Amino acid sequence: MRKVAGVLSLLMALAISLLAGPLYANESQAVKRTVAPSKYDVTKEVTLEGTIQSLVRKPAPGTIMGAHLMVSTGHGTVDAHIGNYFVVGKYAMPFASGESVKLVGIMATINHQSVFLVRTLQTGNSTITVRSDHGFLIYPGAKTHLASISSTGGAR
Length: 156
What we know:
- By secondary structure, the chain is of the alpha+beta class.
- The protein is built from two helices and six strands.
- It has helices at 2-20, 142-152; strands at 46-56, 68-73, 76-81, 100-110, 113-123, 126-129.
- It has a five-stranded mixed beta barrel with strand order 1-2-3-5-4.
- The longest helix has 19 residues, at 2-20.
- It is rod-shaped.
- 13% of the residues are buried.
């Protein structure tokens, strides 16, 4: 009888401990995500013309990630952020020092540093759309991919 009572009390303690776990499940701090408004405002767009000094693939710590073009303009050197989509992979563009470039975008301060957020970039007779009207980087093949999905009726 003593053995049965011991086993029974052990099973009861185990059952209570298993049921007590979910009681404390919601007390942990949930990860809070904040969504910052876009720093890009189409009404503040400006056009810059200049020559490419260099292409920076790995920016300095504290600057916005992605590729940057250092462009020499009539007002000095501008750090122009273009993202990585046009410097690596299938859609890589050859940006050469001394090449004339026309940039449309806005000047922004990110981490206490001025950077020109490029929306469109024109070199020679080709124009590249780097960002959407809301300031989000555009993947070059996205329009083709979206067109093929909508024409086939999407994934099923």
